[in-house]
Amino acid sequence: MGKEKGMKRMGAHAMLGIILLSMIPAVVGAQGGYNSVITSEDNVMLLGQELRFEGADLSNIIKGSQDDKDIRWFALRTPGSNTTGFDSRILPGRGIYYVDTNRNGVWGDNFDTKLYVQESRLEIELRDAEGKAIDATITGANITIDLVTNMDYDDRVNIRVTDFDGTEVSVDDVLLENMSVSELRGFELDTKRLGTGEYLIWLETSGNGDLTQGLDMSSNVVTLRLFRKDWQLQQYLKNKGDDENEW
Q: Taxonomically, which superkingdom (predicted)?
């Protein structure tokens, strides 16, 4: 009976954590090559981040449950206090994880360090001056990179542009390296240096994780087609619409 009550109590804590997770904003407070975890508090983190535990000397076990599955508990050894090197990629997935900070052998109580783990997101879409999603425009036009991410506002990313042969091309007078996430929101890319043809555009994190709290990832790749004349663009859009209507 005691064991059954204990499992119910852990289940209740896990469900409460799931509710709280939806109320917590994106990760904040970039620390360069790691995400600082404050013991005995609630912490939000992304899978793939490097963690540094600040506070008590832990050297304890992390237990957690994935929020889209039955309650399952995972035992993982943490590093000592104020040490980097805990790679969150060893966690089995998103969910709520507990560190038994006060070493009372109970996970999910008010003394634990809670880790609310989210899947990292880095996605882009191209838009015109009117905010419409596009994959083609006239050469020389400005396009906006519409960014969807839960990375920290000060995490750094690079914009990559290549032709279809994979050759990287120069796009803008603005340096497209080590840009912060906040700088990228609503960023306009000037295409006047690009000739007609097809290009691939994507984002990748800067510094092998040193500037992104350990995250090392790339966004989806989008295709941009540039035409010299408006009638060529309109013909492409008409043909594209006809092809879509056939389906």
A: Archaea
Angle at 48 between CA 46 and CA 54, to 5 degrees: 70
Distance CA 134, CA 48 (A): 31
Residue 46, strand partner residues: 118
CATH number of the domain located at residue range(s) 122-246 in this protein: 2.60.40
CA distance 162 to 196: 13
Which has the closest alpha carbon to 88: 100, 106, 99, 76? Answer: 76
Summarised one tens digit per residue, pLDDT across range 142-175 is 999 999 999 999 999 999 999 988 898 877 666 6
Spell 55-74 as b/e; 16+ CB within 10 A means b: ebebebbbbbbbbeeeeebb
- Judged on CB neighbours under 10 Å (0-12, 13-18, 19+), 28 is exposed
How many angstroms separate the CA atoms of 162 and 146, rounded? 19
Give the global pTM: 0.78
Phi, psi of 232 (to 5 degrees): -70, -40
At position 20, the amino acid (one-letter code) is L
Phi-psi region of 19 (alpha: psi -120 to 50; beta: other; left: phi over 0): alpha
CB 40 within 8 A of CB 75: no
Segment 195-212, tens digit of pLDDT: 899 999 999 999 888 899
